[in-house]
Amino acid sequence: MSTRTLVRGGLVVTAADEIHADVLIEDGRVVALAAHGSDTAAGWTADRTLDATDRYVLPGGVDAHTHMELPFGGTFASDTFETGTRAAAWGGTTTIVDFAVQTVGQGLREGLDAWYAKADGVCAIDYAFHMILSDVNEYTLKEMDRLVQEGITSFKLFMAYPGVFYSDDGRILRAMQRSAENGGLIMMHAENGIAIDVLVEQALARGETDPRYHGEVRKALLEAEATHRAIQLARVAGAPLYVVHVSAEEAVAEITTARDKGLPVFGETCPQYLFLSTDNIAEPGFEGAKYVCSTPLRPREHQAALWRGLRGNDLQVVSTDHCPFCFTGQKDLGRGDFSKIPNGLPGVENRMDLLHQAVVDGHISRRRWIEIACATPARMFGLYPKKGTIAPGADADIVIYDPHARQTLSAATHHMNVDYSAYEGRTVTGRVETVLSRGEPVIDQREYVGRAGHGTFVPRSTCQYLD
């Protein structure tokens, strides 16, 4: 049975255009757009018509950096693929790219298969995977080639977390050389973890145990130094580089310098670095633990450089690095020792709304909002034009968005499986009203109508900025 859905009367906003258009959907795909009120649109009939008058019609968000069920510091991220993808849908995100984890001593395949098993049959929206590469050796380098053919086309390496995920420069260079051959994209957590561990040890020896010291030891200069080193290693290998969760002005400067040379270097930042700061991590008592993540929150002065990077395209993507741990029972593992606080913030539900607030505040344009949240992540990770736009042939991942509604972000009303909100009490303008995933309603007029298992795995092509 063929089903047709018509979205009428809204302002369609993509990275390229803003047009008052009706959108015709058939069998999960966009089949046509026509100017609202035109003869073409007037002739369309459908099984279901959605009224988008005075609303934006947006492509579903693509969050290219999430960590559902991630093991960290003796515990696991509190969102499962079921709860996390449901929350993502509530926030207007219709595709996530999560990180499968290779454990040291195992192959990439074991790690990837474990993540397939976690996600299979429970996701509310579509999903794909990156691969965390924790153990670079001759065997895992060969496995990289096979994963690229399977549609896992990006690999994350860590210059931080010695003893867990850390790779030294030699291993990083080998992985970059391999990706230069197989078309994969290396994603880098750029912080000098060896130096940071020295500073952690010294801070704890001085009795500096509160959450705020997490940010003080993970210095901006050590993010910038690692970013610089990663860029030079990528140049030596002849490989592209994508730097994740850029938080510091000095790190943005390193990426800008590389891009000014015409190098294939890309940067991502996250809402927490744009909207939160060291003021949060320094909140009294143990409240600051809620904001412990790596890279850490920076002093507010860094935000201007991040916004400038986003406007000037030295930073191309805003992802969430969604990695939630409950304040009670998880974050409090680090009472008396900040180094034991699980690193990560909840945010998959808040990204699209916070970035719309940035439009309202004049930081970015409407089209740039859709570019950094939908189109560019889809292109960067080989999902475009199936995802990230509204055009004939694209998946009908569509959000009807009320740009005038006001809402207050709160743990009392969010849908992420975590007991606090990083944005508690913040009022924003704009709210998701209805969400379609491949033409099927997931959120309908602020009511969840989706189901676990609707979301399917999406294999990816290689980065579309390197053709």
Task: Please give a handful of descriptors for the protein shown.
467 residues, alpha/beta, 8-stranded mixed sheet, 8-stranded parallel sheet, 14 helices, 31% helix
Characterise this structure.
Helices cover 31% and strands 23% of the residues. It contains 14 helices and 18 strands. The strands form three sheets. Strands 1, 2, 3, 4, 5, 16, 17 and 18 form an eight-stranded mixed sheet that branches. The two termini are 39 Å apart. The mean pLDDT is 97.
Gist of the model:
This protein has 14 helices and 18 strands. It is an alpha/beta fold and 467 residues long.
- Give me the Rg, rounded: 21 Å
Largest sheet: 8 strands, mixed
- Please estimate the helix content: 25-40%
Which structural class best describes the helix and strand composition? Answer: alpha/beta
How many strand elements?
A: 18
Q: Quick one: overall form?
A: globular
Relative strand content: 15-25%
End-to-end Cα distance: 39 Å
Low-pLDDT residue intervals, each spanning 5 or more residues: none
Arithmetic mean pLDDT: 97
- Can you count the helices? 14
Fold blueprint:
Blueprint lengths: L3 E10 L4 E9 L2 E7 L3 H4 L5 E4 L4 E4 L1 E6 L4 E2 L2 E2 L4 H10 L2 E9 L6 H12 L6 E7 L5 H13 L3 E5 L10 H14 L2 E5 L3 H13 L6 H6 L2 H18 L3 E3 L5 H12 L4 E5 L1 H5 L2 H4 L20 H10 L5 E2 L32 H10 L5 H15 L17 E11 L18 E11 L2 E4 L24
Parallel strand pairs: 1-4, 1-5, 6-9, 9-10, 10-11, 11-12, 12-13, 13-14, 14-15
Antiparallel strand pairs: 1-2, 2-3, 5-16, 7-8, 16-17, 17-18
Helix pairs in contact: 4-5, 5-8, 8-9
